Amino acid sequence: MSSIKLLKNFIAITRHKSVAAAAREIGLTAAAAGQQLQQLEQEIGVELFDRTKRSLSLNSNGRAVIEPIQEIIVKYESLGSNLKSELSGTIVLGALVSTLMGAFGKTLNELKQSYPELEIKLIAGLSSNFLDQVMEGTLDAAIVTESPYALPQTVQWTELYKEPMILISPSSSKTSKNLNNSLPFIRFERNTWTGHLVEQTIKVNKLKIQDSMELNSVEAIIELVRQGLGYSIIPKLANIAWTSDRQLKIQELPGKTVYRKVGLLERKKHGRQNITQAIKKHFLSTL
Question: pLDDT tens-digit profile of 7-47?
Fold first, then answer.
């Protein structure tokens, strides 16, 4: 019977879609992680991935065993938990980098201090990518913006906090109605969930813009604006000292305020619900 290490190795590989990346996470060499995967496939009796020289992707067998393997890992890690008064075990969370700079990062640190036996693994990425990973079980949950589309019935999203969309420009620029004519616009990637909010903000405020470049990082956009390379519309991240930043100018938009809502995305039924419930309760109690 496969050891728990083989099962955790499999889940790490499905999450990273790379044996080498999974090996770095769990502290193995790539060769050892690959051998463990082969051993698991031999014990189960089927191949779990389609392999080419350059890629590794889950096949139908692999997708079918993700949830049962996750359940085995959860049950293993919960052994003895009834004898403890605090949360323990491991939860794998997807998170937008910008949320870690905001309100969630601080709360996550406080939660870890409250529950020292709880291991939280963070995977950075985009909201739209996290949805697929949560649905297939390679992520236990994810901190994402509210989806502009209806979510599948198997998942749920709980709002944790919200951030207003704001216009930022270099502090050296002149504040005027012609700002958008004097500087190029740096846009957050259109096909992302935050990108939809940027487009909504532009429309409701009837702004005329001239696109310069398109990025999928709020942090990178802020830095480019600091350097005077353009202006942008981004969420006003929590826990950032906006008023003391001498290189940036913050402008409230004249029309309707659009908010980026940030919340916890998870399957309606999964083995880490005791931890996600604690995250939601702890977060909301500290607001």
Answer: 989 988 888 888 888 888 888 888 999 999 999 999 999 99
Residues 189-240: pLDDT tens digits?
A: 998 999 999 999 999 998 888 878 999 899 999 999 999 999 999 999 877 8
Running DSSP on this structure, what letter comes out for residue 186? Answer: E
For the chain, the C-alpha Rg in angstroms (whole number) is 22
Taking the complete model, does pTM exceed 0.70, yes or no?
A: yes
- Residue 248's pLDDT band (cuts 50, 70, 90): very high
Give Cα 194 to chain centroid, integer Å.
12
Domain that holds residue 28: 1-62
Cβ 143 vs Cβ 95: under 8 Å: yes
Rounded Cα gap, residues 164 and 142, in angstroms: 21
Note the pLDDT tens digit of each residue in 105-137.
777 888 888 888 888 888 888 888 899 889 888
Token pair recorded at residue 103: 């309100």
82 part of a folded domain = no
Residue 25 is part of a domain; what is its CATH number? 1.10.10.10
Domain count, the chain: 2
User: H helices within 78-154, ranges in order?
Assistant: 97-101, 103-114, 127-136
The residue among 12, 47, 62 that closes a domain is 62
- Alpha-carbon distance of 136 to 182, in angstroms, equals 46
The CA–CA distances, whole Å, from 25 to 8, 11, 19, 22, 127 equal 11, 11, 10, 5, 21
Determine how β-strand 89-95 pairs with β-strand 118-124.
parallel
Residue type, 23: A
